[in-house]
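Exercise 7.
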Amino acid sequence: MPCKIVIPSHKRHDRVFAKKLVNDPIICVAESQADLYQQFNPECEIVTHPDDVMGLIPKRNFWRTFHA
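Solution. The predicted structure, written as tokens, is:
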């Protein structure tokens, strides 16, 4: 089973450098930022979380709960 790499990001739609380190990365962002991330990172899958999920650990827990 392939390993998925999820890159949590916040307000750096034009500076997601980690996407260059892995194949087929997934960028996880707040719903309100999805359009900008898609515009600047069309080669990546963009998944969203509610805007009120803030911080790395809450984002990780959200991903595990809803995308496992």
